[in-house]
Amino acid sequence: MSKLKKCWILFSTMMVISSTANSGYAILSVVVRNFVGKHHWITEEEMEDYIALVQGAPGSIAINMSMMVGYHVASLLGAAAAVIGCAIPPLVIMLLVTAFYSAIIGNPWIDIFLHGMQAGVIAMLANLVLGLFKNATKEQKIYPLTIMALAMAYSLLTDLSSILLVIGCILIGCITFITKIRKEKSAK
Asked: How high is the pLDDT of residue 40?
């Protein structure tokens, strides 16, 4: 498949995804379904790495994920196509909401619509979390389960900054990686 065709698919797919899944986290499960499942352009392991990266990067999760996927599939042109496709729908929606704000505010039909969207977003997030959990635990090692449990406990039981959690997980990941490399070198 040509690079230009891939860019068109990236643009149009991200535009559709961004039109229907407007939350950053909700968009992740749809991106996984499309680019890992449907197109097979990215492996599950690569997507897990991208999800971790976009959550820690500043800015919109949806735009960051579009950029990562687009760059992976078709380099710089692919990244640009995916980001533009992802950015157009929310931009148009915000322009329309701004233009018709006085007619929209307090409208019971809009309230019903937004509550329905919240339920859909929760379902997409649950699907994403379960998929990530399944992939993280498929080797049935205690390490990822322990880290997940500790991170969950930290989030639920403390009022400390989540930045400390991220830094702690980065440190644990670095220590684990260095330990793994040393074990591999000593085994040789």
From this structure: 92
Hey, what are 21's tokens? Answer: 């899944």
pLDDT digit string (tens) for 84-126?
999 999 889 889 888 887 777 778 888 888 788 788 778 877 8
Domain containing residue 94: 3-117
Q: How many domains does the chain have?
A: 2
Q: Long-range contacts of range 26-33, CB-CB < 8 Å, 24 or more positions apart?
A: 26/120, 26/121, 26/124, 26/125, 26/128, 27/61, 27/62, 27/65, 28/54, 28/61, 28/65, 28/128, 29/124, 29/125, 29/127, 29/128, 29/131, 30/124, 31/65, 31/66, 31/69, 32/128, 32/131
pTM score: 0.60
